[in-house]
Design brief:
The complex is a heterodimer of chains A (418) and B (409).
Chain A: E1 5-13, H1 20-28, E2 34-36, E3 49-51, H2 64-69, H3 72-88, E4 100-105, H4 111-122, H5 139-143, H6 147-156, E5 162-165, H7 171-184, E6 190-197, H8 202-210, E7 240-248, H9 249-254, E8 261-270, H10 283-296, E9 305-307, H11 314-328, H12 331-334, E10 337-338, H13 341-344, H14 351-365, E11 367-368, E12 391-392, E13 397-404, E14 408-415
Parallel strand pairs in A: 4-5, 4-6, 9-10, 9-13
Antiparallel strand pairs in A: 1-7, 1-8, 2-3, 6-7, 8-14, 11-12, 13-14
Helix pairs in contact in A: 3-6, 7-14, 10-11
Chain B: E1 5-13, H1 20-28, E2 35-36, E3 49-50, H2 58-61, H3 72-88, E4 100-105, H4 111-124, H5 133-136, H6 141-149, E5 156-160, H7 165-179, E6 183-190, H8 195-201, E7 232-240, H9 241-246, E8 254-262, H10 274-285, E9 292-294, H11 301-315, E10 321-323, H12 336-350, E11 352-353, E12 369-370, E13 376-377, E14 382-389, E15 393-400
Parallel strand pairs in B: 4-5, 4-6, 9-10, 9-14, 10-12
Antiparallel strand pairs in B: 1-7, 1-8, 2-3, 6-7, 8-15, 11-13, 14-15
Helix pairs in contact in B: 3-6, 7-12, 10-11
Classes of the chains: A alpha/beta (418), B alpha/beta (409).
Chain lengths: 418, 409
């Protein structure tokens, strides 16, 4: 008998109001949270908008020592993990620590702290060979970002498997998929799983400027992220995190936990094509979708909602639309498809987990979040992308997908649990 | 019954050698592959020694177009993967591209490449940053580049758990084989010997400040005083037992068991979980003992003591031969575990346990039968490899020789 795996707790920090409730209210209202970059002076950059979090570490209950020591993305991870555990009603102290693990996804790890320390060590880039006088004792944690799951494991007393999954922009799906595998196989009873990225920093902005992946749009920053719209011209960089309590079904049921959704299927594939490019036919993403649905024993025409990657780059939106048609057939034209990146931007590795949160909450609330800023669809994107306004609907089966640099394509199927 | 994960190809790039046989010869001889840091003037640095790879000629082995877009760590991974796959002798058309995947561990990203781009950004402006920086830097770069070069479209992954990540990656690849993939390229690599990366590696204070390469990294020695960081890693090509049998591919051995645990927060008063990782990995492999242990060998007194105690608890006092070839070339981050797995498979092949260089005086109360001075010739059918990552990550992996039952899957 295969063990079933369910989500029993959610913690989110996303742009536009912090906390899971504020996040859901934002996306259910079709409101957007992209704005001119305030975290650094972006005046010399091609793209100058971002989805930023007004994160207050004091308000979030992080100690002065944690604030000094921990990278911003790690701070996000810790507070989201606390929220997810509180939300789930799980008492880690009641569990055998050996049966509890942690998996966190991140694309760029401690990029913010790396850049800050780089400027100190190199005297703003003047020195190639540096002086150890200004070396932070925490520098190793910034170089090697497995410090992120370590902090969460310490926080909750986990002594089972702990690791970081770093597959670029699919990290947020792959980290949860990794955790689901471990719960399903019986290795652990529960995992804290999710992803965090805080890449709104000069070096990461420059990376995407260089390949014109982010939008150069300067007017109307709140309308900068336009997936599937004919006028889209790049994604909007963002930060955020989402963490979950991922738990074996019987374990959750016995303690009377509320269940958001079952994680019924997961798969990931490589496109073996290009580090940043996508083939137009979407065949590898379609393969990931097919495998995830087969694992979930879900027929394509049973899907009630598809949470798209929908980054708002021309090549992604077409690639993904082709993948949906390939996997879902005619049902691709009937099922609502939407991108919450239109509202909270693209937080790299984190967004996959934030989108799992959106999918699970969509099931719970019976609401399909919309694609904001979608006024005139690209003729090549001819599916029902739920423009502008959310829709009420009973959602039993939901698919969420991700696509990223390195050629990674991931898909996860969620099912309502009655 | 689930598939076995057979090792049908392997390659290594380490300070000890750039081919499997060169590495094995160096390890058996207990050669010291540690020396003063090269590539920049480290005379002002507190740490002067490292295990760096000499004579790596990426230009000779890689297409020109890959050079400007790749950090040294990715070049090492690409060249080693190509060698390992050549050894696996998979012909075009043998396997469907969706049945072949890649899982690598990496802990330090593309350090030197990204250091140059940080410098360009802050001295010349964002317009000067390379179009390749977005992926040459990130931790998944080796997985992506290897999958592209070899046309592998199956399950992929990239893990970070410092030194433990390499064994976790091999275990994830094995899981994918059990789920239905036929071939998985796996392992781990790290390289961060630009001035910033090297300095960052020293920040936790565990690196040896010794000046003599023969006295710098002496795991389990009474006089241990830190470890020497190195660069490189290994690639293992895993194939499902049924698939290997079908195309008559010879196997170097099987990835038979694995477990990962995490140590409690320092000061919690709770004990290390390394012993549990060992017991779970052996249970996963269905074995009650092994013929040799390749130790993690942190080179830090408290950590060496914990590891010695865990081994003694499981196997009894001096109950199993223990070795640490990495004392000769350093700790390779994500590459360390995979190199030890490869060395363990060679141990099984040649019935000999390589020695632990440099260590001479092991405290008697460690209860360790550490193989010192010279190789020990004995039959080796199973080996346990241990890797611990900074912060409390424990990973334990069991490999088994390809005895008859090995390929039955």
């Amino acid at each position: 008998m295969t063990r079933r795996v369910v989500i029993t707790g959610i913690g989110v920090r996303a742009p536009g109001g912090l906390g899971t409730k504020a996040f859901w209210e934002l996306i259910a209202a079709g409101a957007t949270a992209t704005r001119p970059i305030s975290l650094f002076d972006a005046s010399g950059f091609r793209s100058q908008v971002a989805g930023e979090c007004d994160f207050d570490p004091d308000f979030e209950g992080l100690s002065p020592r944690q604030q000094r020591r921990l990278d911003r993305a790690t701070q996000f991870s810790v507070v989201c993990a606390r929220d997810a555990i509180e939300d789930s009603g799980l008492d880690p102290g009641q569990l055998d620590p050996a049966t509890l693990g942690v998996t966190i996804g991140s694309a760029v790890g401690a990029a913010t702290s790396l850049e800050r320390e780089y400027l100190v060590l190199s005297d703003s880039g003047r020195h190639w060979v540096m002086n150890e006088d200004h070396l932070s004792p925490h520098m190793f944690d910034y170089l090697v970002p497995s410090a992120m799951p370590r902090e969460v494991a310490w926080e909750i007393g986990a002594e089972g498997p702990v690791t970081m999954v770093s597959t670029g922009c699919t990290s947020g799906i792959d980290a949860v998929g990794y955790a689901v595998d471990l719960v399903r196989s019986g290795t652990v009873a529960a995992m804290i799983a999710g992803a965090s990225d805080t890449p709104v920093s000069p070096i990461v902005a420059a990376c995407f400027d260089a390949i014109k992946a982010t939008t150069p749009r300067l007017d109307e920053p709140e309308r900068a992220s336009r997936p599937f719209d004919a006028s889209r011209n790049g994604f909007v960089l963002a930060e955020g995190a989402a963490m979950f309590v991922v738990e074996e079904y019987e374990h959750a049921r016995k303690r009377g936990a509320e269940i958001y959704a079952e994680v019924a299927g997961y798969a990931t594939r490589c496109n073996a094509y290009h580090m940043t490019g996508l083939r137009v036919d979407g065949v590898e993403m379609a393969e990931a979708i097919d495998v995830a649905l087969a694992q979930a024993r879900m027929r394509p025409d049973e899907l009630d909602y598809v949470n798209a990657h929908g980054s708002g780059t021309k090549q992604n939106d077409r690639h993904e639309t082709a993948a949906f048609k390939r996997s879902l057939g005619d049902h691709a034209y009937r099922v609502p498809v939407s991108s919450i990146k239109s509202m909270v931007g693209h937080s790299l590795g984190a967004i996959g987990s934030i989108e799992i949160a959106a999918s699970a909450l969509a099931i719970t609330h019976g609401v399909v979040p919309p694609t904001a800023n979608l006024h005139e669809p690209d003729p090549e994107c001819d599916l029902d992308y739920v423009p502008l306004e959310a829709r009420e609907a009973r959602l039993d089966n939901v698919l969420t997908v991700g696509s990223g640099f390195g050629g990674f394509q991931s898909a996860m199927a969620l099912r309502a649990v009655s | 019954m689930s598939e076995s994960a057979q090792v049908v190809g392997m390659g290594v790039a380490a300070p000890s050698g750039l081919s499997v046989e060169d590495h094995w010869a160096a390890v058996l001889a207990g050669r010291t592959s540690i020396g003063p840091v090269t590539g920049f003037d480290a005379s002002g640095y507190p740490v002067r020694l490292a295990g760096q790879i000499r004579d790596f000629d990426a230009e000779a082995h890689l297409p020109k177009r890959l050079l400007p877009q790749s950090d040294r760590v990715t070049r090492l991974a690409l060249v080693t993967a190509a060698t390992a796959l050549a050894g696996a002798d998979v012909a075009d058309g043998d396997l469907d591209s969706f049945d072949q995947g890649v899982v690598f561990a990496n802990a330090q990203g593309g350090s030197a490449f990204t250091h140059r781009e940080f410098r360009k950004l802050w001295t010349k402006g964002p317009a000067e940053v390379s179009v390749y920086e977005s992926f040459a830097w990130f931790y998944a770069v080796n997985t992506g580049q290897v999958s592209i070069r070899h046309g592998m479209r199956g399950p992929c992954g990239a893990l970070v758990a410092e030194q433990a990540g390499g064994l976790d990656a091999i275990s994830l690849a094995r899981r994918r084989i059990r789920e239905g993939a036929r071939l998985m390229v796996t392992g781990g690599f790290d390289s961060a010997f630009d001035p910033w990366g090297f300095l960052a590696q020293s920040a936790h204070g565990r690196l040896s400040r010794a000046a003599d390469p023969r006295r710098a990294y002496r795991p389990f020695d009474r006089a241990v005083n830190g470890y020497v960081p190195g660069e490189g890693g290994a690639v293992l090509v895993l194939e499902a037992g049924s698939s290997a049998r079908r195309r008559d591919a010879p196997s170097h051995g099987e990835i038979a068991g694995h477990a990962a645990t995490f140590d409690p927060r320092p000061g919690s008063g709770r004990p290390s979980t390394l012993r549990r990782a060992i017991e779970l990995a052996m249970a996963d492999a269905g074995v009650s003992t092994v013929d040799v242990v390749f130790a993690d060998s942190a080179g830090v007194p408290e950590l060496d003591r914990i590891e010695a105690a865990a081994i003694e608890d499981v196997f009894g006092r001096r109950g199993v031969p223990v070795t640490a070839p990495k004392a000769g070339f350093g700790r390779l981050g994500a590459g360390g575990g995979p190199v030890d797995v490869l060395t363990a498979l060679l141990s099984i092949r040649d019935s000999v346990i390589p020695p632990t260089p440099h260590t001479t005086d092991v405290p008697d109360d460690y209860g360790l039968d550490l193989v010192l001075d010279a190789p020990r010739h004995q039959r080796v059918e199973t080996a346990l490899v241990l890797a611990r990552g900074y912060g409390g990550f424990n990973s334990a992996l069991v490999v088994r020789g390809n005895a008859k039952e090995g390929q039955d899957g």
